[in-house]
Amino acid sequence: MAAGSSKAAEFHGPSINEFFPDPILFAGTPIEMDRIVLIRLFAVAVLLVFAFVGTRALKLVPNRGQAFIEYAFDVVRRNTFDNLGEKDGKRFLPLLATIFFGVLFMNLTGLIPFMNIAGTSRIAMPMILAIVAYVAFIYAGLRKHPGTFLRNALFPPGVPWYLYIIVTPIELVSTFVLRPVTLTLRLLMNMVVGHLLLVLFFSATWFFFFDADSLFKLFGIGTLAFGIAFSFFEILVALLQAYVFMLLTAVYIQLALADEH
């Protein structure tokens, strides 16, 4: 393809530098803000308006907007109660709902024109959310089982004492290290890869249509089709990642509350 077009060498694919744009506000200060930070603030503002407008005048017979919000919230509520039961579910429902809708709205900014990048596509936000989930399940375990939670987590009852030299390091890493790390990386990598693929498809479409020679322009039809199809797929990924993050947080809390501790 490069040999068939004199301009092919001019095409440049997406770069990891896109996730580290130049500062826009307060450059050189501790509160420096770049494009991604502003996108996060926008997502939070839209979420707050969405929640306020959708719940300020609730009706017994809901309109379409209220019905949509109730359905979305009910998904979180049912999963929370299924994992934690009604009593503990009510305690942690606000946290899990905040995680679900916060992740979802920040994920979806990657598909909004003129933004085109998810607020969760840089590690700070996924890591903060993972730390919140980590603190929540540690808090739940210590609150429910103050004297036995850490001991039973690291030294599971019923295991022969001589196996603790193997079991305890595994439990330490899997429970207290890998959980927040995997929560962070799962969300981050999905958003990063999604952004890079969308940029690749649409920048290639622009290149083929406007810069490529003769018949090479036809390749733009294919890249445009892939770009549109993957945009719809990315909506599903954004929703799924928000759901998985919320669900795993609920599962970790449930494990911390289990009577085995």
Task: Describe the fold and architecture.
The chain starts with 22 loop residues before the first strand and ends with a helix. It is globular and about 75 Å long. It has helices at residues 35-55, 64-108, 124-144, 149-154, 164-176, 178-210, 219-257, and strands at 23-25, 33-34. Helix 2 packs across helix 7. Strands 1-2 form a two-stranded antiparallel sheet. Residues 1-8 have low confidence and may be disordered. Strand 1 (23-25) and strand 2 (33-34) form a beta hairpin. It has 261 residues and is mainly alpha-helical. It is a multi-pass membrane protein. Belongs to the ATPase A chain family. This is ATP synthase subunit a.
Short description:
Belongs to the ATPase A chain family. The protein is about 70% helix and about 0% strand. The longest helix has about 45 residues, at about 65-110.
